[in-house]
Design a protein that fits this description.
It is a single chain. The protein has one domain. The chain has four helices and eleven strands; from the N terminus they run αββββαβββαβαβββ. Strands 2, 3, 4, 5, 10 and 11 form a six-stranded antiparallel β-sheet that branches. The chain is elongated, with a radius of gyration of 23 Å.
């Protein structure tokens, strides 16, 4: 009888240990994923995008050079534990790309949590994941030769966790309200242009920089 009680106690502690390890691993994994995302409120400046005037290649395809200057900000994980904001006007590493097309498109992924999670400082999050060029002429866009379509992954591109949540959003209804992607587009002008990439409750917006 004593041996049976010992076995039951040992198995109970072993089960508790396994459960604690699983919860800890899940929490660390979720935290690591949150660290790649940013939070937002009403309308926040995400990046400054400088677009050179439209140019034509020797073989007749439109292109431009784009500077992508992301604003320095704290990750979603950091903001759960701290309210400190990055200083206005600070940038992370600037990137420059040659983009084929007569318009540029930039955007990424959103995760909107259920409202009651805001009580735990878990705000809606986003990640800019793609910058690309496109052609307004659908026939031209569908018959492009190799190398005349530009798609650039930013911040590591679309991650597997977001894909999983997007596919299984209904199974995580206790946590998320909506999981979706969103992009904003601007035609390339003849003159150089500078835009602000803003994140809002409606998605990404490319707009004139606000003073």
């Amino acid at each position: 009888m004593k041996n049976l009680i010992k076995i039951i106690i040992t198995l109970t502690f072993l089960l508790i240990f396994v459960v604690v390890c699983f919860i800890s691993f899940a929490g660390l994994s979720f935290g690591a994923w949150l660290h790649t995302y940013r939070t937002f409120t009403q309308k926040d400046l995400v990046a400054v995008i400088e677009v050179e005037g439209l140019q034509i290649s020797e073989d007749g395809y439109e292109y431009t050079n784009v500077k992508y200057k992301p604003i320095k900000d704290s990750s979603a994980l950091t903001k759960i534990f701290s309210s400190r904001e990055a200083k206005e006007g600070e940038y992370t590493q600037e990137q420059e790309f040659k983009i084929y097309g007569d318009q540029i498109e930039v955007g990424g992924e959103f995760v909107k949590f259920n409202d009651y999670w805001n009580l735990f400082n878990l705000k809606n999050i986003y990640k800019v994941t793609r910058l690309e060029g496109d052609y307004s002429d659908a026939e031209k866009a569908s018959n492009l030769p190799t190398g005349k379509r530009t798609v650039i992954a930013l911040n590591g591109g679309t991650d597997d966790t977001w894909k999983f949540l997007q596919k299984r959003a209904d199974d995580f209804g206790f946590l998320v309200d909506s999981v979706y992607g969103n992009f904003s587009t601007k035609f390339i002008q003849e003159e150089d242009q500078e835009y602000g990439l803003y994140v809002t409750e409606d998605g990404f917006i490319l707009d004139d920089l606000e003073e």
